[in-house]
């Protein structure tokens, strides 16, 4: 049967699938340690910054339990009009998605979620990594270098001073793994340049 004779529902389904398959990039919403373009490019070499956005009714938290005994970032969708988080939107090649999934630990504390956001007065479908409920812990602190990554990214995107202050005020701890600490602190120096 020729396409012009398909039921309208089929044509729409075909067009949606064709667009999905033709799309070589996905849009990623970064809010934590991947905010900085250099940090993300080390994980996904062909990532490209699209812009930054605000997320009303959402707050940045450091309550995702990591396998290394520290906490990592998460977005908490509170619906509270007083809560506001900032994020960056990147285009990620589909062929490199597995690199970011592995780095983020999909299935081991984070899951991937799609959501609609506003960017430059346009609605965009993005994906974001969120903490699985089984990995949310309020009693942990991030490593100093991890919090530094988040802060360096927020500075790079020129997020508002009060937002930077909120991140800076988060209690953090030194990483006792000396090799990882040195490696990450060296990277942090590059991000802060």
What does this structure look like?
This protein has a domain at 3-137: Gamma-glutamyl cyclotransferase-like (Hypothetical upf0131 protein ytfp, Roll), CATH 3.10.490. Mean pLDDT is 88; it is low at 1-19. The protein is globular, with a radius of gyration of 19 Å. Helix 4 (144-156) runs antiparallel to helix 5 and helix 4 (144-156) packs parallel to helix 6 (178-192). A hairpin with a 5-residue loop joins strand 3 and strand 4 (71-77). Strands 1-5-2 form a three-stranded antiparallel β-sheet, with no helix packed on it. The protein has a two-stranded antiparallel ribbon with strand order 3-4. The longest helix is centred in the first third of the chain and has 15 residues, at 8-22. The chain is built from six helices and seven strands. It has helices at residues 8-22, 37-43, 97-104, 144-156, 161-168, 178-192; strands at residues 25-30, 48-56, 58-65, 71-77, 84-93, 110-119, 122-131. The chain is of the alpha+beta class and 193 residues long.
Topology:
Elements lengths: L7 H15 L2 E6 L6 H7 L4 E9 L1 E8 L5 E7 L6 E10 L3 H8 L5 E10 L2 E10 L12 H13 L4 H8 L9 H15 L1
Antiparallel strand pairs: 1-5, 2-5, 3-4, 6-7
């Amino acid at each position: 049967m020729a396409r012009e004779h398909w039921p309208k529902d089929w044509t729409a389904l075909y067009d949606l699938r064709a667009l999905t398959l033709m799309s070589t990039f996905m849009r990623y919403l970064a809010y934590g340690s991947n905010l900085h373009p250099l940090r993300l490019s080390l994980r996904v070499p062909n990532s490209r910054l699209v812009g930054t956005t605000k997320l009303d009714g959402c707050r940045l938290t450091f309550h995702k339990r990591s396998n290394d005994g520290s906490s990592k970032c998460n977005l908490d969708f509170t619906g509270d009009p007083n809560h506001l988080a900032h994020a960056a939107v990147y285009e990620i090649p589909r062929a490199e998605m597995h690199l970011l999934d592995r780095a983020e630990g999909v299935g081991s504390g984070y899951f991937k979620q799609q959501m609609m956001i506003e960017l430059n007065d346009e609605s965009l479908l993005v994906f974001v990594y969120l903490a699985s409920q089984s990995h949310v812990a309020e009693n942990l602190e991030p490593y100093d270098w991890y919090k530094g990554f988040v802060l360096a990214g927020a500075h790079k995107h020129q997020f508002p001073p009060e937002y930077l202050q909120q991140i800076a005020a988060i209690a953090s701890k030194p990483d006792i793994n000396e090799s990882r600490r040195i490696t990450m602190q060296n990277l942090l120096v590059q991000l802060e340049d």
